[in-house]
Design goal:
Strand content: 5-15%
CATH superfamily: Phosphoenolpyruvate-binding domains
Radius of gyration: 18 Å
CATH class: Alpha Beta
Largest sheet: 5 strands, parallel
Shape: globular
Helix content: 40-55%
Distance between the termini: 30 Å
Strand order of the largest sheet: 1-2-3-4-5
CATH topology: TIM Barrel
Length: 208
């Protein structure tokens, strides 16, 4: 089981986080784990819940909005401080949503056991354009910007070298032409709705 920690900010601000709205509402503000200092209690509650179930089930903790590899190491120390004990059943993952996390993927894998690529934010920050202003063909349509594809390829190439798990947080069924490009750069795991599995499976088999 993988649990993505609070990714609060931008247009995703729940009522209980409204007090920090001015600091987290910008896409370039204190999003993801950057908001930990101002929403510390919320993160502590979430992590304590993970610590309680981890003896019974293997849990992957996914850290959103990572920019520097050291942020993963720092967050691990934060977790061990608030919840000391045996955490051998917990593995650590990082979202790759920023160009810096993709460019520093070799170093990031020193601290992260796996990564999840978020193409929406990765496109937004790579192209310096808000998600809602990116041309559909470059985000929600049939393809991704070539610069974003190159960053994804870097992540997948390094994952293969280091025998790490990496996949895409993207429903590929409406974007079947994009699936072929992602397969070409090494992506092997996708989000697919149950009813779309036969369609995607047949397409992958036809490419082979």
């Amino acid at each position: 089981m993988n649990l993505r920690l609070f990714d609060i900010g931008g247009d995703k601000i729940p009522n209980w986080a409204q007090k920090a709205k001015s600091e987290i509402r910008s896409p370039l503000g204190l999003r993801g784990i950057r908001s930990c200092d101002i929403l510390k209690t919320a993160f502590e509650n979430q992590l304590n819940a993970v610590a309680q179930i981890s003896p019974k089930v293997k849990v992957g903790i996914v850290l959103p909005m990572i920019s520097y590899p050291e942020e993963v190491a720092n967050f691990k120390r934060f977790f061990n401080k608030i919840s000391p004990g045996d955490h051998s059943n917990i593995i650590w993952g990082s979202m790759v949503e920023t160009p810096s996390s993709a460019l520093l993927i070799k170093e990031l894998y020193k601290y992260a056991d796996f990564v999840r690529i978020g193409p929406g934010d990765l496109s937004q920050f790579t192209l310096a354009t808000l998600r809602e202003h990116i041309y559909p063909d470059n985000l929600s349509g049939d393809t991704l910007n070539p610069a974003v594809i190159k960053l994804i390829k870097m992540v997948m190439t390094e994952a293969k070298k280091q025998h790490k798990d990496a996949n895409m947080c993207l429903d590929v069924e409406p974007r079947l032409p994009l699936l072929k490009k992602l397969l070409a750069v090494g992506v092997r795991c996708f989000n697919v709705s149950p009813e779309s599995i036969p369609v995607v499976k047949n397409l992958i088999n036809s490419i082979k």
